[in-house]
Amino acid sequence: MKKLIAALALLTVVLVVVALRMQGSDRVADLESRALLSEDQLAQLADVERITLSRADASVQLVRTENDWGVAEHDLFPAQRERLAALLHALRGARIIENQTANPDYHARLGLDPDADAAETLAVTLAGEGEMTLLYGNTVGTGQLVRFADNDQVWLVNRPLNMTVNSSEWLALQVTDIPMEQLSSARWEHADGEVLELDKAREGDYNFRLVDLEPALQVGNERWINSMVLALASLRAQDVVPRQDLPLQEPVLRMQLQTWQGAELQASLHDLDGRYWLVIDRYASPEKGELEINADERWAFQLAIGQVEQLNKRHADIVRNQPADSAQE
User: Fold this and answer.
1) Phi and psi for 202 in degrees, rounded to 5?
2) Contact 79, 70 (CB under 8 A)
3) Could you write out the three-class secondary structure of the chain?
4) What is the pLDDT of residues 94-135, one digit of tens each?
């Protein structure tokens, strides 16, 4: 037993020493590396007004607007903040860990010649008062080869840049994000006049109940009722277009949500030749706190069929228990 304890103690010491050496090596490597962007280029990055990402024949252009960033290919609809932040963080944090070739004859095989046949080079162009373009090529281990478009020198940087050039994937398509506990009531009105009125027993509850429905039928139907409301309260669209581009007529469904804090959201669902579009008709913000709502009246949001099925429910769809069923339970 004493020998076993001694062996374990020795192994622990060895592992600690190895860990410290590895940590020390990482620190040395970090000290020996240098930032890819100079101070002037970092300042230029901070003031950038337009970012273009391109690979082969695909590209996306992000434009700084008055309050945010928009996607040029989609009428400056807001870009995803998280994806944009990841891009800027990767550019700022890129560090050169090794110098590579400066011979342009090798650029194509290193993935750094965007004009080469079947090239997969990612070009990132940053434009503001000045302009610079970074070219990202082959990955090497956990790093990636990179060069500036106006410089033949190739470097190996510490992290790869994996960014989509599909403009649709840059769209911030989360239309609503309201916690269910904050909602107090809801109203669904179909085009044929059928109305569903929903409320809650008390503030902070998650489950909705159908107004005027006998208590025996409330139990067991929460799933269907809640899923209908949740489909609007936490809605991510499939696509977006300017509302003026669509010949919207009378909606097939009008919806309304209210919160305990006084916010009110009104939305409507439109059917255009089998494709469904949702528009935010009105949004009144609460006195305290802001909700995550894209209430910009310029946009219409395309929904998937599954989302439409969740929203476009009627009394028979959300009340599935009959009195006999409830009594047996």
Assistant:
1) -160, 160
2) yes
3) CHHHHHHHHHHHHHHHHHHHHHHHHHHHHHHHCEECCCHHHHHHHHCCCEEEEEECCEEEEEEECCCCEEEHHHCCEEECHHHHHHHHHHHHHCEEEEECCCCHHHCCCCCCCCCCCCCCCEEEEEECCCEEEEEEEEEECCEEEEEECCCCCCEEECCCCCCCCCHHHHECCEEEECCHHHEEEEEEEECCCCEEEEECCCCCCCCCEECCCCHHHHCCCHHHHHHHHHHHHEEECCEEEEHHHCCCCCCCEEEEEEECCCCEEEEEEEEECCEEEEEEEEEECCCCCCCEECCCCCEEEEECHHHHHHHCCCHHHHCCCCHHHHHHC
4) 999 999 999 999 999 999 999 999 999 999 999 998 999 999
Closest CA to 151 of 317, 38, 302, 311: 38
Residue with tokens 């009008």: 254
Distances (CA, A) of 100 to 104, 153, 188, 238: 11, 7, 64, 43
Chain position carrying tokens 């840049």: 161
Q: Which residues contact 256 (CB under 8 A, 6 or more apart)?
A: 186, 187, 188, 264, 265, 266, 267
Residue 89 pLDDT > 60, yes or no? yes
Give residue 218's pLDDT. 76
Strands 155-157 and 209-210: unpaired
CB 326 within 8 Å of CB 294: no
CA 213 from centre of chain: 39
User: For residue range 55-67, what is the model confidence (pLDDT) as tens digits?
Assistant: 999 999 999 998 8
With tokens 């009959």, the residue in question is 322
